[in-house]
Amino acid sequence: MMIELIEIRLCGLRNLIFFVVLFQFSCTNETEEAISIVWENDKAVALQLEKLSIYELGNSQIEVRLVQEGNRVPILGELKEEGGMIIFSPLIPFTRGQSYAIYNGDKKLGDVLIPGFDPNDSEHSLVEIYPTQDSVPENLLKLFLKFSKPMREGQSVNYLTLIKGDTDTLSGVFLDLQPELWNEDQTLLTVWLDPGRIKRDLIPNQKMGAPLSKSEKYKLIISSEWKGLNGGVLDRDYSKDFAVVARDSISPAPQEWQLEIPRSASKSPLKVKFEESLDFSLLNEVFKIISHKNQEIDGEWKIGNEEKSIDFTPDSNWNKGKYKVRISSRLEDLAGNNLNRLFETDLEIQTSEQEDSEFQFIEFEVKE
């Protein structure tokens, strides 16, 4: 019996690991049942056993196992009855190219072979490297790599090289963080420079120095050997040249940002200019527009050139009146300084005068 399924993401582990879970029910039905797949956002999130109810099963054990090199490894998931059928939802989605077996006690109900990706769709590319500007502060904290298709995780440090001055290949610059910080579809990776070497009062910084040095030039290289989730590799090596400027020791200050305010009865965008590059990933998460009635305005945010601005286009025309731009204080600049404190601030010695705020606001008025 052949059914379709998808990929499993298990952030933080170099190999896929599955855990056992058993479900206790009665077995009175000895006929093989039909098995189908439940898809959600192009992912196989569950197996559905048709015309088979928990009541019919009674005291038997329902188990889904990964078939790998002759071994059958049970996986963790949730079993429930819905619409007269049993649905098994794994803790994490199923993996393309893998086989699974479904058992009812000692009886095998069927096999599932997960289809691999289209071999004609195996070529990957690196869409962008953030920050996109060609100069970064000496205390740069993070880089972001955006790929065209899902990539394999847990291996990024093996495919990243940083060269100083065209000749000096640096080691120990990037944090081998496990789990790696991927977005949900594994197309955007956050790469941390070692924070222990950036903070000047920590031992790694005192022993090895900061990862980057002011006034130096660097080249970041991403190897074409890095494989995608479907086994394909990058279409070529990628690189980014950048220069290092002075440390950034000032938090972003929304009160100093500039707004270009649209007119009412239009869908013209509200433009917010920062005058410095900010954290690409957080820019997608921290902004809201709030009306004078304290209601969130629906619309689309678009990050501007070099991450120095952001535009908001409403779904409906602007109404005349007062609004607020609400910004989560989690927003950071390239050095990890957020709206409340500097990255190097020691939280243990924070004074009562330095109370955190969850949000900051910029007020504006839309006129006719």
Structure in words:
The structure is a single chain. Helix content is 5%, strand content 36%. With 368 residues, the protein is mostly beta strands. It has 3 domains: 23-113, Immunoglobulin-like; 120-245, Immunoglobulin-like (Sandwich); 254-366, Sandwich (Immunoglobulin-like), CATH 2.60.40.1220. The strands form 6 sheets. Strands 1, 4, 5, 8 and 9 form a 5-stranded antiparallel β-sheet that branches. A hairpin with a 3-residue loop joins strand 13 (160-164) and strand 14. The radius of gyration is 26 Å and the shape is globular. The termini are far apart. Mean pLDDT is 84; it is low at 1-32.
Reported CATH architecture of the largest domain: Sandwich
Helix share of residues?
Answer: under 10%
The computed structural class is mainly beta
Which percent range describes the beta-strand content? 35-45%
Counting DSSP E segments of at least 2 residues, the number of strands comes to 25
How many domain units?
3
The residue-averaged pLDDT reads 84
Q: How many strands, which pairing sense, and closed or not: the largest β-sheet?
A: 5 strands, antiparallel
CATH topology of the largest domain: Immunoglobulin-like
SSE sequence, one letter per element: EEEHEEEEEEEEEEEEEHHEEEEHEEEEE
Low-confidence stretches: 1-32
Q: Note the gap between the termini.
A: 65 Å
Q: Indicate the overall shape.
A: globular
Q: What is the CATH level 1 assignment of the largest domain?
A: Mainly Beta
Helix count, DSSP H or I runs of 4 or more residues: 4
Q: Cα-atom Rg, whole angstroms?
A: 26 Å
Keywords: Signal
InterPro entries: Cu-Rt/internalin_Ig-like (IPR014755), SbsA_Ig (IPR032812)
Protein name: SbsA Ig-like domain-containing protein
Pfam families: Big_5
